[in-house]
């Protein structure tokens, strides 16, 4: 399995969280895109997506499935 790395710019830490989001102007309601976050960047990335009303859920990386 490939190591999952945080999506924050410049971060190379292992991801602990999956931030599931979509842009309703571009994506169907059931479509989910995923950003990964380490513990240090989770809040920052959630705030960025939340301020745009894109964030749908945050789950542990361990809960991701092959379909995600």
Describe this structure in words.
By secondary structure, this protein is α+β, with helices and mostly antiparallel strands. It has one domain. It has one helix and three strands. The chain has one helix spanning 42-51; strands spanning 17-21, 33-37, 55-60. The protein has a three-stranded antiparallel beta sheet, with helices on one face. The longest helix is centred in the last third of the chain and has 10 residues, at 42-51. The chain is globular, with a radius of gyration of 12 Å. The mean pLDDT is 94.
Nearest-integer average pLDDT: 94
Rounded Rg: 12 Å
| Large-scale geometry | globular
Strand order of the largest sheet: 2-1-3
Give the % helix.
Answer: 10-25%
Tally the helices: what do you get?
1
Biggest sheet: strands, sense, closure? Answer: 3 strands, antiparallel
Beta content: 15-25%
The end-to-end distance, rounded to whole angstroms, is: 14 Å
Summing up helix and strand content along with how strands pair, one would put the structural category as: alpha+beta
Please trace the helix and strand order, writing H or E for each element: EEHE
As residue ranges, the low-confidence spans are none
List the main descriptive attributes of the protein structure presented here.
68 residues, three-stranded antiparallel sheet
């Amino acid at each position: 399995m490939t190591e999952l790395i945080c999506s924050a710019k410049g971060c190379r830490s292992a991801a602990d969280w999956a931030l599931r989001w979509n842009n309703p102007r571009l994506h169907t309601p059931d479509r989910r895109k995923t950003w990964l976050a380490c513990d240090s960047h989770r809040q920052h990335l959630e705030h960025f997506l939340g301020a745009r009303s894109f964030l749908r859920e945050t789950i542990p990386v361990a809960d991701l499935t092959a379909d995600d």
